[in-house]
């Protein structure tokens, strides 16, 4: 932009253009009838779009059709507008230009693969899922690329607690896509007075950030249960950011993505809020519950528990130092005491604060 021009002068920005397109009604699909699928379906219907909302459970689809509620995953919330709940996948996808996928990572490939024929070339398909596939350490956009390569793919990620979005609490997110048309379309479909959509091209970084932060939300929930204090919370969140960006950058992500909503933004919300399921699992374990009991009590997906296993394996394979991942793994899966892990983390070699400025050393003589 020329020096003396202000944002908003002259040519409309990408976002201003987006808002001007919002009055147009579109047919969109949301796949997955859990809490986040419900939250996104609500934003989309409130923005005036017809939403084909696919879920596998007949009774849930019937309840949404008859009452506009999803009492299992989003009690107390009513959806209105042009909502078409269905269990017919092909029917949901056939009629739309844009599809949002909110299926947990464990089932993501199966669902897409078994309905791959339903997608049309050129259709926009956006993953809302924050997880990693075990085989091959694949992210959801990579699964989409493999299973439905003729579609145009995007990833939506950011500090987006479903429980707040359904109450129209002010929220921002990130659409990451290589193709500008995908970014613009998603901004136009979702953007409104309470939901802002920022854009990024670093699909890998945005997606990996969303998956990784779930691990650190578990750590942070645990620290809260143990009442470690506010200094400890700040230390943990900052070192989490250092660790997740070290790992992601080594795999090809752009470090600057971690300064944005999908990086630090999502890390902050999930590490500080009891509305985060990952945080809640960590809190329960921190106060002495067994992991299995904490997960059973939650009754919803906490992706970080599986992501932890995959990231720990991957970090060892590629030789990335991830002490928080290692410590959490030892607690959740290795029977280590939380106290012993904290002590070993606190007495480890002291090293560089921001390693993109001052590289880490093996001896700690930074
Ligand atoms: N809830 C939230 O605040 C947010 C969640 N996400 C991500 O969205 C993804 C989905 O999570 P939630 O909706 O929150 O989970 P949830 O636990 O609330 O619901 C999961 C949904 O997936 C469905 N499902 C599971 N396996 C399936 C299969 N094989 N076929 C069809 N449907 C299946 C379940 O029936 C359920 O409707 C996760 O990756 C999560 O990290 C992302 C941002 C915010
Ligand atoms: O990703 C989320 C908020 O951005 C939701 O986090 P949880 O899955 O921990 O609830």
UniProtKB/TrEMBL annotation:
GO biological process, one term: glycerol-3-phosphate catabolic process
Residues annotated as binding substrate: 130, 277-278
Positions with a binding annotation for NADPH: 35-36, 56, 73, 130, 162, 277, 301, 303
TM spans (from-to): none
Domain Glycerol-3-phosphate dehydrogenase NAD-dependent C-terminal, chain residue ranges per copy: 202-342
EC number(s) stated in the UniProt entry for this protein: 1.1.1.94
UniProt KW Transmembrane keyword: no
Subcellular location: Cytoplasm
Alphabetical keyword list: Cytoplasm, Lipid biosynthesis, Lipid metabolism, NAD, NADP, Nucleotide-binding, Oxidoreductase, Phospholipid biosynthesis, Phospholipid metabolism
Xref: SUPFAM superfamilies: 6-phosphogluconate dehydrogenase C-terminal domain-like, NAD(P)-binding Rossmann-fold domains
UniProt domain Glycerol-3-phosphate dehydrogenase NAD-dependent N-terminal: residue ranges: 27-180
Biased composition (Polar residues): 13-22
Binding residues for NAD(+): 32-37, 162, 277
Any single Gene Ontology cellular-component annotation: cytosol
Top-level EC class as recorded in UniProt: oxidoreductase
Pfam family, one: NAD_Gly3P_dh_N
Biochemical pathway: Membrane lipid metabolism; glycerophospholipid metabolism
Region (Disordered): 1-24
Active site per UniProt: 213 (proton acceptor)
UniProt catalytic activity: sn-glycerol 3-phosphate + NADP(+) = dihydroxyacetone phosphate + NADPH + H(+); sn-glycerol 3-phosphate + NAD(+) = dihydroxyacetone phosphate + NADH + H(+)
PANTHER family from the UniProt entry: GLYCEROL-3-PHOSPHATE DEHYDROGENASE, GLYCEROL-3-PHOSPHATE DEHYDROGENASE [NAD(+)] 2, CHLOROPLASTIC
Function statement: Catalyzes the reduction of the glycolytic intermediate dihydroxyacetone phosphate (DHAP) to sn-glycerol 3-phosphate (G3P), the key precursor for phospholipid synthesis.
Family statement drawn from the similarity comment of this UniProt entry: Belongs to the NAD-dependent glycerol-3-phosphate dehydrogenase family.
NCBIfam families: PRK00094.1-2, PRK00094.1-4, PRK00094.2-4
Protein name: Glycerol-3-phosphate dehydrogenase [NAD(P)+]
Organism expressing this protein natively: Marinobacter daqiaonensis
